[in-house]
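Bumping with the actual sequence this time:
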Amino acid sequence: MTAVKRAIRDVYGDTLAQLGSENKNIIALDADVGSSSKSIVFGKAFPERYFNVGIAEANMVAMAAGFATTGKIPFANTFAAFMVLRAGDPVRSLIAYTNLNVKLAGTYAGLSDSYDGASHHSIADIAFMRSMPNMTVISISDPVEAELATRAAASYMGPVYLRLSRAEAPVIFDKKTYDYKIGKGVTLVDGSDLTIVATGYMLVKALEAAELLAKKGISARVVNIHTIKPIDRELLVECARQTGAIVTVEEHNVFGGLGSAVAEVLAMHQPVPIEIVGIEDTFAESGDYEKLLGKYGLQAANVVARAEKVVKRKK
């Protein structure tokens, strides 16, 4: 992890525009938040392939479905909360049901739209999207992954939900060596006492927690599960078998997200003690992003506390 930071949404916007220059079938739609989602970068480069539909998220997704039936590769963009709450019907009935090649970019995920409060926070989108048949769900953790995941989504055949943070994030991965593959988790730190499974911006907190645990004599493995669905069952089972305990970390409600997905895998294949770090089934208030993460338990110190608890449960 380096000190270099870049907003994930900025990388996404630039990558989308680059993809547009490489493939004329790629189009972009936005629900009047292009300057926020950064789809506007694509729009300025390719105005004839950019459609701002206004504050009409459901119509945007329906239009994207129509474009997909003609061979286009549409990227539909809006805040993650609105992609689920306002466009949920066509996401389900038009895109998932008919398995169309549409990419849904949900920006400002988690609490990253911090000052706009509960109406704009997105803490249930993973639960919704992973419950949709045919939907691939990707949660992006750093600027390098933002580029690689967006490119992977563009070349993947079928519906994809990209979960994008508004926040500036430190660079974790080396673009030259990161072999990003949809559906394959990544082990960043090896360890023997427990495994910390993280996704999205919380990967940074997981890495910080592993360093703090090491000072306490606890060896923590850190795994990045960027693809929530299809989840890397093989890696999760291997980690559970080798370390005997799991802590999951996500910027999402503790119900229905990464923790639930991991628990489902372990319950069926390798039962071990598990602790789920996430938003404890509550709406969050407005405020500074990092302070909100701290207030709602999404910080390294809480991951450390849960890790110590789960290690004790092994005995």
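The tokens above came from a reply further down the thread. The first helix runs from residue 8 to 22.
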